[in-house]
Amino acid sequence: MLLPLVVMDKINIIESYVSADQELQFQFVKILDNLCASGSDLDGLASSYERAGISVGESSKLTRRQLNKLASRLAKTYGLDIEKFPNVAFSRASGSLHYMLSKYYKEGGISSDNMEDLIKASVLDNVQLQINLLLELIRYKDLPAAAYWAQYFNIDSRNIPFQLQDYMKHHPTVKRHKWQNNDSTDHHNDEYYCLNISLDQVHFIDNQGDLQHCQQTLCQQGNVIGVDAEWRLSACNAGVERIALLQLATKHAVYLLDMIALTADVSEEILRGFTASVFSSTDTIKLGYGIAGDFRVIAHSWPFVAEIVGTPCQVIDLQIFARSVKVAVEAKSGTNKKDTPPSHKSTSPTNTQEDLTTPSQCTSLNEAIVMRTFQKLDSIPDTELPSVPVSGDDVVGDDESNTEHSASSGPRGLGLLVKECFGRPLDKSQQLSDWERRPLKREQVYYAALDAYCLLEVYKHLKEKALAISPDFNITPFLTSSTAGKAVYKGQKEEKGAKRVKELYENPPKRTGPPIRPGDIKLVVDTMLQGLGRQLRSCGVDVVILTNNQHHYDAIKSCQQDGRVILTSGAPFNTLKGMVPEGMCVHVTPGKARDQALEVFDHLNIQVTPSDIFSRCQMCNSNNYVLIERSKMAEIFESLPETALNKCPLKLNGGEVREDDEVPTELRIARSSLLNNTNYPIVGLNDGLSICDGVNVVLSHNGVCLNIKNIPVGVLEHVDIFFCCSACGKVYWEGKHFERFVRTFHGVFNTASTT
Fold first, then answer.
1. Which pLDDT tens digit goes with each residue over 165-201?
2. CATH architecture of 199-391+411-478
3. Domain 518-608 coded CATH 3.40.50.2300
C-alpha cells in the first residue's frame, strides 16, 4: 500500500501515516531494505506500476540509490538500529569504504598508520565488503595492497578478480603491505601551517571538574572561540556518526573535550548547562568553518542539547565570511573572475593574500553573501563536513585511479582558506583517524588543536583585510542570533523602534520592453521549486526541473549550455547568482506555486495566453503531441487484451456540460487552441501507431510507447480527443483538472491576440 506513494514522491503522506506506530515504521523500512537487495527486480516492479496506471516518471524513486537514501534517512529519523536492515547497512559501509580509500589515495586525508586499522574496523568479516575492498584497490592500481588483503581475509580464490589472481601467481610471497607514507609527523614542516601555541596550552577535558573550569574560562566577556569537532568514520561505528572530540580554542588555550568520557561520567543537566553557556551566550563570538555539520553531529550525539546548537548566538561561519571579503577585494581591485568554475577545488590555488574564496557579483562588503550559519549549507561548495555517502553506487573510474595522490588534488575547505591567508595549507592527514581511541596520539592532539586555533587567526586576518577595504566595516551581518533572524547593517535608520533590515536576496532588475511568450524563454528550477516548475510548464514555459538527486550546480550547467534562467529560493541564490551572467539567476519568494508563477511572469515580463495552457508535457517538457480521436482510441482498446487495459470504472468529474455562454473566454480559447493546432497530427492504428508485443501501443516514427494503461476505460464516454506526448508517451485528456487550472489563472491571460 505504501510503495506506490514512494513512486509518486508522496513520502510526507507515508511519514504521517506511520508516525505513531513503531511497528509500522520498522516494517516499512524493512520493505525498503529488501528492495535494496542486489537480486530485487526494480525494473519489473516499475513496469507493474506503469501497467496499473501509476506513472514512474523520469525521476523514478525506484532505484537502489534512492531507496537506500530513503531507508537510511527514515531509520535515522525513527531511531531504528541500522544493523537490522542489512542491505542499507551494507550500502552505507560500502560507501564509507569508497570514501575512505578516496581520501587516502587522492587527498591524503588519512595517515598511513591509521589506514590499516580503519580497513579492519570497517570491513570486518563481511565477505562482500572484502571483495569490494579488492575491487577498489585494483581501481587505484595498488595490486600489492589488494594481494595483502586477499590473503589477510583468506578470501576464496573464486571471489578474487582475475587481474589480481594473475598478480598473485607471479608474486606468491605476499608481505605485510606498507602503505604509501602520507604522514607529516614533523609538526614544523615548512610545507604545512603550524600551531602557534605550545602543546602545553592544549588541555584535555574528560571530567566534571575540568569541564566547569573550562566553562569559566570560555565564557569571559569578549572572548572569541574557535569551534571544531571530530568523530570516527561512521563505517567503524555501525553507520552511526557519534562525536568523539569537541575542540574549543581561545587566544591563550585550546580545550579538547572528550565527548565519550563526558557522556558517561557527567549528568545531562550539567552538559546542557555547559553547552548553553557557550553557544547561547551573547558575550562571546564563536567561529567555525562549515559549522552546521559540527552542530548536526553534536545534536545527534547529545539530543538534549539539539535546541541549543540549532539556534546558536553570535556564531560566524568563516566559509561565508571569507567569501564576502573576497568579493570586496575583487570590487576594490576591479576584477571579476567570471570564468572561475563553481568549485574552488582548483589545481593551483593562488598563494596571495588577496585570493580568499569564491568570487561573486556583489559590489561592496555589506552587499555580500549574508545568511544564517545554521541554515542548510548543502548548496555551498566544499563545505568541510567529514560525513560519508550512504550509498556505494559512485565508483572511481580507472582514469582517476592512481597509486599517487591525484595531481589535481590539493587543499580544500578550511585547508585551502588557511593557504590563501597565510601561504601554507593545513595538514589533513589525521582527519579520518580513529578519534575514539584513548589516549589520543600526539599527532591527533596536534591536529585537533590546530584545526580549532587556526580559526582565530583566519578570522583576525580576514577582519583586518575587511577594515582595510572599508573602515566602517561592521561584523554584525555575519553573526547568527537566535533573537534576530536576519542580519542588520550599520547605519540603517530605525523606524518605529524596529530596525529596517536590508533584503538578503537582491534580484536583478525586472525585464522591460515588449512582453515575451512562454515559448520564447528557457528556465531551470532547482529542487526546492519543483511545484513552481510544473505550474510554469502547464503555462507553456520551457522549464527544466531538477530532480531530488541533482545538485544546484546542474542548474549552472543548464544555464551555461542552454541559456536557461535559474529560478531558486533561499540561501542557494546568493551562491548561484555569482556564477552565472548578470540577470540569469532570479530569487523566487517562498509561497504557493501559483503565486510564485505570477511573480516569475511579472519579473521576467512573460505574457501567457490561453493558447499556451498545457502546450507542454508536464512530465518531460516536450511540446510535441499526437492526437487520438475517441473512435480510434476505442479501436486501440478493442485490439488490446483486457490485462493491458485500466478497468477502473472512473468517469470524469465533470457533472453537466456547460453551454458555450457559460464557459469563460480563457477556457474556450484554450480548448480551441489545443484542438486546432495543426502541428499535432491525428494518428490511429496502422496510421502512425502500432501494437508491439501484443500489449504496447507505440508511435511508428520513434518507437515511444504510449501510456495507454493510464486511461480508465470509462473516460471514452466523455472525451473526444486524447493528447499523447510523442517524447515520453504520457497521455492527457481534457477534464476538470484542465478547467480548474484555467480558472486558477483567470484574469491573468492576455486574450487580445487569441480571440
1. 889 988 887 766 555 554 444 555 678 999 999 999 9
2. 2-Layer Sandwich (3.30)
3. yes
